[in-house]
Amino acid sequence: AGVRRGLLERRVRVILDGGALDIDWPEGGGVRMSGPVATVFEGTLAPAFLAGLA
Q1: What's the predicted TM-score (pTM) here?
Q2: N or C: which end of the chain has fewer CB within 10 A?
Q3: In the structure, what pLDDT confidence band is assigned to residue 54 with cuts at 50, 70 and 90?
């Protein structure tokens, strides 16, 4: 939205609690995000929940 409104460049760095996230949105292409990776949650989904997604 920021790029479309002319507020941001197509390449930005977003500072988050877990580190910097680099976002690149080239003309005519998909959005690419890169940055550090860390597990922040592990869990199990109930089979009934998964069945409701199908």
Answers
A1: 0.61
A2: C
A3: confident
